[in-house]
Automatic annotation (TrEMBL), chain B:
Residue ranges crossing the lipid bilayer per the database entry: 21-41, 112-131, 152-179, 199-221, 228-247, 294-313
UniProt-recorded name of the protein: Uncharacterized protein
Species of origin: Nocardioides albidus
KW Transmembrane (keyword) present: yes
Keywords assigned by UniProt, alphabetized: Membrane, Transmembrane, Transmembrane helix
UniProt keyword Membrane present: yes
């Protein structure tokens, strides 16, 4: 088994506040395999996602626990692996009076990257023409694109992206989504923290869900969501279809103008309805989406019971 | 190129691209030019035109006097007396101290220029790093170079190194220009230029230390405003506070700064004066504060602040 790109063991972070001690991350065991793919990192606001990312990148100190990037213990060995890791943490943070290009150039110079990589990064995020403008004049979407460009300066094997589509318009979101998917397919491991769950579901192969600083679930997205157990059938006469399916022992109800049927056997639905002379115009799998799963999980966590 | 030299280059580029820093570096050039120009103008030699103007003014003053004034001693021709003293009055009106480098170095424009340059460079060091914290771009920098000790050292080296070079160039140029003019006016005495240049170089060291202190404090407090507020508060109330606490002038930072720039100074010890109150005049309370003692004292303060700043930068979470 290859070394994970990210691994945390019983990771914990406490903050001292006026109200007392606050535990932001508690005993988090996170493992993201290396070798490409997009791993979603999900959780409600204040669940500890950003704090975890900041600890992994050496911006915040862990109270206890272990962290490793590509098998190297961090923060002790962070300098040895930081060149393989690109990251956008929360909102983009650049010098507002410098141009986008100068901001990138200074970061590239810090790691000895050639200037040509700055040009390439600017081109990748399609900021040609605005790269010499002051950073403060950029829209939020442009700032976000510049932050992504900064991560590309390193030619990273691991990308950690914290809400990378914040402030982007729909076209921008789509572009970033395609970029992330492309990077994942090209062998870059991406840890994608986002609250836009539909977006995560579209690009992620695996995901970790946390709540109140604790891990609630982790695994392949398909495994998390489970197999489909229901279908939606659209027919001319829903009432009659419910009667036919019910007579065959299936649980069926009229729902939103169609028929919701609880079964794992789609062929049986088409056969039963066909034999009764009811012709299907649509049959859709009712797969629980990540958002439903996430809300069920985090709500259960909030109430302190099993999902 | 080594990692550290690369980092130094990056920080230097960041330093010279920051507008506020450029404005302050510009002030380091403009202020000495203005002060120097005023100094040279105020000490310019008397020309024939100046003499004619002064004489005309002296005569005009006599025109306002009555020709004859009666008093108990008889009549006096005040206007005539005034006219008899025209040449004396003309000399009075023309009295301008000649350019004297020793005067300028000890109490004239030299200390003023050195102080203003040091303050501007302190502010440059402060605003350079304060901007990083205000924009939070420091976290982005650390994503590319996570060795925080190196980042701190590179920024500190750039801030203090740039301050040293700028101050040395500006102050050396200042004294060289004044010495050139003094020589042309035949008022330059042997050894004056060397003394003035040495004072300029000592002041350059002070400016570099001031810039380093500004940087270190701002990194510690993560706020330009906090640093300036503390320094301003100490400048305004520090001496009073120390006097109120009965602390000897020996430990007054301002006194030590004077000793550094002037290569030693004299101060008066209040405790000594109290002890000798019964024997006035028998014993002098004047104490000498040497350059070395002042450098050790202020160097220790700056060093302690730097250690605290570096430790804080390495350990605290970065926003």
């Amino acid at each position: 088994m290859s070394t994970p790109a990210i691994e945390t063991v019983r990771l914990r972070k406490e903050f001292s506040t006026r109200a007392g001690l606050r535990v932001a991350v508690q005993d988090l065991d996170l493992s993201v395999p290396a070798g490409g793919g997009v791993h979603g990192f999900l959780g409600p606001n204040g669940s500890g996602k950003t704090t975890t990312i900041r600890m992994l990148l050496g911006l915040a100190r862990a109270t206890s626990g272990e962290m490793r990037l590509f098998g190297e213990s961090v923060p002790e060995r962070l300098p040895a692996v930081i060149g393989r890791v690109g990251a956008v943490v929360e909102s983009p943070k650049f010098s507002p009076n410098f141009s986008g290009r100068l901001n990138l150039r200074l970061l590239a110079d810090a790691i000895g990257a050639p200037r040509s990589r700055v040009d390439a990064a600017i081109e990748t995020v399609q900021m040609q023409g605005r790269d010499r403008d002051r950073y403060r004049s950029y829209s939020l979407g442009m700032k976000q694109r510049l932050a992504i460009a900064a991560t590309l300066l390193k030619d990273p094997e691991l990308l950690i992206l914290d809400e990378p589509t914040n402030g982007l318009d729909p076209a921008g979101i789509r572009e970033v989504r395609e970029t992330i998917r492309g990077l994942g397919d090209a062998g870059v491991t991406v840890l994608l923290s986002s609250h836009i769950l539909a977006e995560v579901q579209q690009v992620c192969t695996s995901a970790t869900i946390i709540g109140n600083g604790r891990m609630l679930a982790s695994g392949r997205v398909e495994d998390l969501l489970g197999a489909s157990t229901a279908f939606r059938a659209v027919v001319p006469d829903p009432e009659r279809a419910v009667a036919v399916l019910g007579a065959a022992g299936l649980s069926a109800v009229v729902e939103d103008g169609g028929v919701r049927v609880e079964t794992t056997d789609a062929a049986r639905i088409t056969r039963l309805l066909g034999e009764a002379g009811i012709w299907l115009s649509e049959l859709t799998t009712l797969r629980p989406d990540l958002e439903t799963y996430f809300l069920r999980l985090t709500e259960a966590e909030r109430l302190g019971r099993e999902p | 190129m080594s990692d550290l030299s690369r980092l130094l280059r990056v920080e230097l580029a960041r330093y010279v691209h920051r507008r506020a820093v450029l404005v302050l570096l510009g002030a380091c050039l403009v202020v000495p030019v203005l002060v120097g120009a005023m100094t040279l103008w105020d000490s310019r030699p008397v020309s024939a035109d100046d003499h004619a103007l002064a004489e005309a003014r002296a005569r005009a003053e006599c025109m306002d006097r009555p020709r004859v004034h009666n008093d108990t001693a008889g009549s006096i021709d005040l206007g005539g007396l005034c006219l008899a003293r025209v040449s004396e009055r003309t000399e009075e009106l023309l009295s301008r101290p000649p350019l004297d480098l020793d005067e300028e170095r000890e109490g004239g424009s030299g200390p003023a220029v050195a102080s203003l340059v040091a303050i501007a460079l302190l502010l440059a060091g402060t605003t350079f790093t304060g901007h990083d914290w205000a924009s939070r771009s420091v976290s982005n920098q650390l994503l590319f170079e996570p060795r925080r000790g190196r980042v701190w050292a590179a920024k500190a080296a750039v801030v203090s190194g740039a301050a040293l070079v700028v101050a040395a160039l500006v102050l050396s140029s200042y004294w060289l220009v004044l010495a050139t003019v003094a020589e042309a006016r035949e008022t330059l005495r042997p050894g004056q230029l060397v003394d003035a240049l040495q004072m300029g170089w000592r002041a350059s060291g002070v400016a570099a230390a001031a810039a380093l202190l500004g940087f270190a404090m701002t990194t510690l407090f993560r706020s330009t405003v906090a640093t300036i507020g503390i320094l301003l508060g100490f400048a305004v109330a520090g001496s009073l506070l120390l006097a109120g606490l009965g602390v000897s002038e020996r430990w007054n930072p301002a006194m030590n700064l004077v000793a550094l720039i002037d290569d030693g100074t004299t101060y008066y010890d209040d405790k000594c004066a109290y002890y000798d109150a019964g024997h006035p005049g028998d014993h002098s309370c004047a104490e000498v504060l040497s350059f070395t003692d002042a450098a050790l004292y202020l160097g220790t303060i700056v060093g302690l602040v730097c250690v605290a700043s570096d430790r804080s930068f390495r350990r605290r979470d970065v926003p």
